[in-house]
Amino acid sequence: MAGSADLRTRREARSPKGRGVRLLALALFVLLAHLLVVELMWHTITDASELRSMTTPMFTRMLTPEAPPVVVAQAPPPPARKATPRRPSITTVPSAVAPVPVASEPAPPDIPVAATPAPPEPAPAPAEPAVPPEAAQAQANAIPPVIGMDAVAAPAYLNDWPADTRLTYRLSGIFRGPLHGKAQVQWQREGAQYQVRVAIDPNLLPGWVMTSQGEVLAEGLSPRVYEEVQINRTRTVRVGESAVTLNDGRSVPKPANVQDTASQFIELSHRFATGQVALAAAGQISVYLARPGAVDLWTYDITGPEFLETKLGRLETWHLKPRPIANPRGNITPEIWFAPALRFLPVRIRVNQGEENFVDLVVEQIEQR
User: Fold this and answer.
1) Exposed e or buried b for every residue in 201-215, given b needs 16+ CB within 10 A?
2) In terms of residue numbers, what domain contains 282?
3) For the chain, how many structural domains are there in total?
């Protein structure tokens, strides 16, 4: 009897119905395993991120090339001059000069001359009614009407920064074969808080996202958190008041006006647009960059003008090429082209990896809020 029961069980397992049950159970197991892995990865990335959420702005217009504004280099105000007494105008007629007497014929002695009556004195103005002490105190405590809190509270230097902007680039390059795809650089500001997000998406290869968040100060952008995400790997830099904490937990002194890989694109654009640094041939600009592995001083040589063919037309640009840094930890170097006719924004970015591999981003459209 036992043998026949085992035989019946084996026959049921070999039957189409039995195979279907087993395949269904296997599919459910694989699906549950995938869901658990995705949820675990999501929580890992979410918990590791120190970025605060910022709402994506609504872009309403396209930026097109225009005559570049005249940039006046910022200079200290001239010393105040001592006030001098104002000289009297030669056209001024003194009011104290007495009129020249004119001879007149005497009146006949037998005709009396009537005296001219004096004009009546003006009536005194009615006295204003006295304001009761309670009403005066209420007027003093009254709150003036609000004309726009942002206009009153926002520092004036915030007006020098561009509106929320998104640049979209065509991606090409070489990495183990030809590369094609899209990329974006997005700038947005909420009050004195900013975010710069650089997203690179090559076809058939994993993309990566670089995000910088911090404050807009009178001196420029002040990053607080910088984050790089590629597949399931996240690397972070935290910038404090006096130190920079790298991805491995080490702290290094914070240089003045330090930037990061993402914020530098908008910070340099702002320096050029406000005249802090002149775009001129044989010029240079230096900036400290905080990256996950170290903080280094990068110096860019400025060359140009160079003309760039884009979907927005032929653009005059200025090319920034970095010099070798003191302690390189890799062979990746960025080159940047800025266009004065497009608010000095970066219209081309080329990231070189050694002498053969590179990613080249050329602007296709620029949207603004």
Assistant:
1) ebeeeebebbbbbbe
2) 155-368
3) 2
